[in-house]
Design brief:
The protein is an alpha/beta fold. It is built from 9 helices and 12 strands. Helix 3 links the parallel strand 4 (71-72) and strand 5 (98-101).
Length: 294
């Protein structure tokens, strides 16, 4: 059975936009949205640290869950990242999920002292990191020896307050297999993975999950949707509320995506409010009707 539809808002970690970040987060928290996502590019001079920002925002909210969209693995050693994630989860009362990426921008990563990895090396490191993070969250001492990471004798803690979702921000077919085989979710963006590419990649995820003896219906399939809510329709991600309702309903019923995070391309606070108060209730109502008829 498909997961119920869920929604979130994007918050940017701009140093000069923290007040806006706080207000957009409050919109998500007060309107019943499930998630707030924050991109993670530590090498960006205009960005504050994503995990610290999430901790600050979590302390100002009561309901919404947070996730890095997605955490930069090459600059965040997995054993330490697991501890940070578990700590935020404890402090927030179980409201943290971990989006994780292999690191797409090699030059700035290397500029901060991170490893310069090929595509295959990055994918292999991501797979190892999943194992390390899960071992850390289990709360028992462990050792790990891989090609990219060596953990001689970890004594992890604290245990997370809830079962943290581990969502991968990957787009290549080989990396996408990791989602089905080892992860809890997939986080991708419409500009990089347009709707026409979703069926083939979702098929890979489903097949990998089934091969691993996992239920593909439990996997979060998160789509970051960029655009604007406008009176006049231009395309699937720029148009009136009705266009957005049709787009997101179709992505859920026909393209297997079950979570949508809105990244307005302008007028962020007002657009976020419109999405939360107008688009989301209408999509929920439309999908409730589909379920009732089914």
């Amino acid at each position: 059975m498909a997961l119920p539809v869920r929604f979130g808002l994007n918050v940017d970690p701009n140093t000069g936009g923290l007040a806006i970040a706080e207000r957009i987060t409050a919109i998500a928290d007060s309107t019943g949205l499930e998630y707030v996502g924050v991109q993670d590019h530590p090498y960006n001079v205009d960005f504050v640290d994503t995990l610290t920002l999430i901790t600050w925002l979590a302390g100002k909210t009561s309901n919404v869950h947070f996730f890095p969209n997605v955490a930069n693995l090459p600059l965040r050693p997995p054993a330490m990242l697991a501890k940070q994630a578990a700590t935020i989860d404890v402090l927030s009362g179980g409201r943290f999920e971990l989006g994780l990426g292999a690191g797409a921008f090699t030059d700035p990563i290397a500029g901060m002292g991170g490893p310069r990895r090929s595509t295959g090396q990055a994918r292999s490191a991501l797979s190892e990191a999943i194992d390390i993070i899960r071992a850390s969250w289990a709360g028992e001492p462990y050792q790990y020896q891989g090609s990219h990471y060596e953990i001689p004798g970890a004594r992890p803690g604290p245990r997370p307050a809830h079962d943290i979702g581990l969502w991968l921000g990957v787009v290549g077919p080989r990396a996408v297999r990791l989602v089905g085989a080892k992860a809890d979710g997939w986080s991708v963006s419409a500009p990089y993975v347009p709707p026409t590419k979703l069926p083939a990649l979702n098929e890979i995820i489903t097949a990998a999950a089934e091969e691993a003896g996992r239920d593909p219906g439990t996997i979060t399939r998160l789509y970051n949707v960029m655009g604007l809510i406008t009176p006049n329709g231009r395309d699937a991600f720029n148009g009136p509320v009705e266009r957005w309702v049709d787009t997101l309903t179709t992505l859920y019923t026909e393209f297997e995506m079950n979570t949508f995070v809105f990244w307005p391309s302008g007028d962020r606070e007002r657009q976020s409010q419109m999405f939360a108060e107008q688009v989301v209730p209408a999509v929920r109502e439309a999908l409730a009707g589909v379920t009732a008829r089914g």
